[in-house]
């Protein structure tokens, strides 16, 4: 797939992506209004695509806070647009960001997707929309590198939920999640 069609496909998938991610968010907070959340996720994804197309998307706290604000503001979410260093474990954001950026220099974003998702989900950096923020950012970084964004189906959603659990409290081990990303990236419906 050529680079321009990757961007077009990413923009066309905004509604589909939002419809899947909203399921995760509603399971986390049942009081959320589905239509509002779909709109917020689609708006945040459009913003991420724009930032990636201009090579402005990064793992900087300020960048992540902007995206989180679009997701959370006006949705009875605690601290919309506030991104904190996080808790130990799993570690603080500054150290994580430096480690991932070093890893990306060698292997690109593809090898870091699971780590980014796990840290944004479990690190207590934001108070809401943790999974959606992680999913949008890792896919935006993929776009920025010229890779296709990853499609998330309901089946893959269940696999990610299970393997993401191992990357959190009690285990703090993202290897199963990394393995799941590797397997899912190879499946035809993932791309």
Structural description of this entry:
The chain is 64% helix and 0% strand. The longest helix is centred in the first third of the chain and has 20 residues, at 34-53. With 191 residues, the protein is an all-alpha fold. The chain is globular.
Short description:
The chain is 64% helix and 0% strand.
Can you give the mean pLDDT? 84
Gyration radius, to the nearest Å? 15 Å
Q: Describe the global form.
A: globular
Distance between the termini: 11 Å
Low-confidence stretches: none
Assess the beta-strand content as a share of residues.
under 5%
Major beta sheet summary: none
Percentage of residues in helical conformation: 55-70%
Structural class: mainly alpha
Query: H/E series, N to C?
Result: HHHHHHHHH
Number of strands: 0
The number of helical elements comes to 9
As an assembly, this protein is single chain
Keywords:
single chain, 191 residues, mainly alpha, 9 helices, 64% helix, globular
List the helices and strands and how they pair.
Elements: H1 3-12, H2 14-28, H3 34-53, H4 61-72, H5 93-107, H6 113-122, H7 130-144, H8 154-166, H9 175-186
């Amino acid at each position: 797939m050529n680079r321009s069609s990757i961007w077009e496909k990413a923009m066309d998938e905004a509604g589909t992506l939002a419809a899947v991610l909203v399921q995760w968010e509603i399971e986390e907070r049942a009081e959320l209004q589905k239509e509002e959340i779909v709109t917020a996720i689609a708006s945040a994804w459009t913003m991420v695509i724009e930032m990636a197309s201009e090579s402005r998307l990064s793992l900087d706290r300020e960048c992540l806070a902007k995206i989180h604000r679009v997701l959370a503001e006006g949705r009875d979410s605690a601290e919309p647009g506030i991104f904190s260093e996080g808790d130990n474990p799993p570690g603080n954001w500054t150290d994580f960001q430096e480690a991932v950026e070093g890893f990306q220099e060698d292997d690109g974003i593809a090898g870091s997707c699971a780590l980014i998702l796990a840290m944004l989900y479990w690190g207590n950096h934001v108070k809401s929309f943790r999974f959606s923020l992680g999913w949008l950012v890792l896919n935006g970084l993929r776009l920025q590198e010229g890779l296709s964004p990853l499609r998330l189906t309901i089946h893959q959603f269940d696999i990610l939920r299970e393997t993401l659990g191992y990357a959190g409290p009690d285990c703090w081990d993202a290897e199963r999640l990394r393995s799941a990303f590797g397997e899912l990236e190879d499946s035809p419906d993932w791309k």
